[in-house]
Design brief:
The structure holds two protein chains of two kinds.
Chain A lengths: L12 E10 L4 E7 L11 E7 L5 E7 L8 E7 L7 H7 L5 E8 L13 E6 L3 H13 L6 E7 L8 H7 L6 E7 L16 H7 L8 E7 H13 L7 E6 L7
Parallel strand pairs in A: 7-8, 7-10, 8-9, 10-11
Antiparallel strand pairs in A: 1-2, 1-6, 2-5, 3-4, 3-6
Chain B lengths: L4 E2 L4 H5 L10 E4 L5 E3 L4 E4 L3 E5 L6 E7 L4 E4 L3 E5 L13
Antiparallel strand pairs in B: 1-4, 2-3, 2-8, 4-5, 5-6, 6-7
Classes of the chains: A alpha/beta, B mainly beta.
Chain lengths: ~250, ~100
């Protein structure tokens, strides 16, 4: 378990790409094997460093998408059109390539099965990735508290993990997934096409009396708005964990 | 880059320095007294490095600048840190 504290400072390691698969039109999942991987918790990330032939190097953080595993790490990476690193990872990298990684990193935005509270997951765009790790971890866990996922995404074709989420969706077994489309919805969709708002959260959210934990991940604006709405609806700030993503500083 | 991220993003850089994950630690802000996990602080990058600000008052919590052979860590904004640690076994000596 990496949750509380892994003693010893992290080192960069060389990971090997074992497989790649498309995750819709804008993202790709890279499967990596990392030597001596200590295992990870759902919600953790890795830092990844790429170095150009001229020695220029850039570093980014990516959430781990798969459930805890002894050796395998999956990263689902969205291609940012103005990105410096993501187009390389999302378009160029192939099985057999090697990448510099360090991790697992982060002990705050994590879920482990020893926490029995019901869980609300709220993801915007590729903010789904660490939440998917939590959903996958729950499905492998021996004790499975109720989870519900609210996935806000611009258009249906941009949904990551669509088939897997559909297969896992089982309200009777405590996992419920709800989509919120913000630009266009599938034919016949009866819900509003709009950003997450108070009315939706009021209808969708777990009762505050159940003391759920909330994990909110997405772009900064999504996270601010969503977390504030949850607080307005009576969820205590200390039960809400947030992770904002965006381009991080480059440099060595 | 001025886009706001959060303390979770600093976990890798801080793990180069600390033997435990300090983003899961709670710190008290010098400026306003609020207590937050370091994972929840607001994080900004500039040309030099990262600057973390209190999510309540935007007071500076810490700054971290890294060069190829050293790091400068400015911890001006934290009164104290409460750090989750691995559970000690009963027989392990203390102090």
């Amino acid at each position: 378990m990496a949750r509380t504290a892994v003693l010893g400072r992290l080192r960069w390691q060389v990971a090997t790409v074992t497989d790649v698969r498309d995750e819709g039109p804008i993202a790709r999942t890279l499967g990596l094997t990392v030597p001596d991987w200590p295992g990870h918790d759902a919600g953790q990330h890795v830092d990844l460093r790429v170095t150009a032939p001229d020695g220029y190097s850039a570093q980014r953080s990516y959430s781990i998408a798969n459930a805890p595993d002894d050796s395998r790490v999956e990263l689902t990476i969205e291609r940012l059109s103005d990105g410096e690193v993501s187009p390389y990872l999302a378009d160029v990298v192939q099985a057999g390539d090697m990448l510099e990684v360090r991790g697992p990193i982060g002990g705050w935005f994590v879920w482990t099965e020893d926490v029995p509270a019901p869980v609300m997951l709220l993801g915007g765009g590729s903010g789904i990735v660490p939440l998917m790790a939590m959903v996958r971890a729950r499905s492998k866990a021996s004790i499975r508290p109720p989870f519900q996922l609210l996935y806000s995404v611009r258009t249906p074709d941009l949904v990551f993990f669509r088939d897997e989420l559909a297969a896992l969706h089982a309200p009777d077994d405590g996992f419920d997934v709800t989509f919120r489309y913000t630009r266009s919805a599938p034919p016949g969709w009866s819900e509003p096409v709009a950003r997450i708002d108070r009315a939706l959260l009021q209808r969708w959210g777990m009762p505050t009396a159940d003391h759920p934990l909330a994990y909110v991940c997405g772009p900064t604006g999504f996270v601010e708005t969503t977390a504030n709405l949850l607080v307005d609806l009576g969820h205590p700030p200390e039960r809400i964990r947030t992770e904002r993503f965006g381009p991080t500083g480059g440099g060595p | 880059m001025t886009q706001m991220l959060d303390g979770n993003t600093a976990a890798g850089a801080l793990s180069e320095i600390f033997a435990v994950d300090v983003t899961a630690a709670h710190g008290r802000c010098v400026t306003c007294g609020a207590v937050d996990a370091l994972g929840e602080v607001h994080l900004y990058f500039d040309a030099h490095g990262m600057i973390a600000r209190c999510p309540h008052c935007e007071g500076v919590v810490f700054r971290l600048v890294r060069s190829h052979d050293r790091a400068w860590l400015d911890l001006r904004g934290m009164v104290s840190l409460e750090i989750p640690m691995p559970i000690e076994s009963p027989e392990s000596p203390r102090g």
